[in-house]
Amino acid sequence: MSDGGGGGGGGGGSFAADGSSPGRMSVPKLMEHAQQLVDRCDPDYALKFLQRAHKIEPANMDVVDMMAEVAMQMADLDLAKKYLEHSIKVVSRVCFMPACVVYGLLLVSLVGSAFVRG
Q1: How far apart (Å, rounded) are the C-alpha atoms in residues 46 and 41?
Q2: In the CATH scheme, what is the code of domain 22-117?
Q3: Low pLDDT (below 70) residues in the chain
Q4: Which residues fall within 8 angstroms of residue 115, CB to CB, at 6 or more apart?
C-alpha cells in the first residue's frame, strides 16, 4: 500500500488546503484532514492522508474503517474489501470472541450488498 504524496483532486499536490503535508501530521490530524477532503468530494486525496495514518498506526481500527468507507465512496469494491479484511485480521488479534469475527464478516458482506443495490 502506497502512502501517496503527489497528485489527487482538489487538495492539489501533497499538501492539505491549509498547507499541511501528510508526512508531518499526527494520526488524528491526518484523519481530520481526510474527513474534510471527503466532505469536499475528494475521496482519492482523502485516502492518501488515511494511508499515511495507517502507515504510522497500522492497528488503528478507526483509520482502517475510514479507509474502507472512503474506498466504498470511490466505488472501489476490491479496495474496500481489502481494508475490511485487514480490519477483521486486526480485530481477531485483539478480540478472540466469535462475535468479533461475525462482525468482521458482516462488514465484508455489507460492502458487497451496497454495490449490488447502488
Answers
A1: 9
A2: 1.25.40.10
A3: 1-23, 92-118
A4: 75, 77
Domain ranges of the chain: 22-117
What is the Cα gyration radius of the chain? 15
Give the separation between CA 67 and CA 17, rounded to whole angstroms.
Answer: 20
**Any idea what the Cα angle at residue 50 is, between residues 85 and 52, rounded to 5°?**
105
What distance in Å separates the CA atoms of residue 64 and residue 100, rounded to the nearest whole number? 16
| pLDDT score for 44 | 94
17, three cell numbers: 488546503
Q: How big is the chain, counted in residues?
A: 118
CA–CA dist 11, 6 (Å, integer): 10
Residue 117 identity (one-letter amino acid)? R
pTM of structure: 0.64
Read off the pLDDT of residues 19-44 as tens digits, 9 standing for 90 and up: 555 667 899 999 999 999 999 999 99
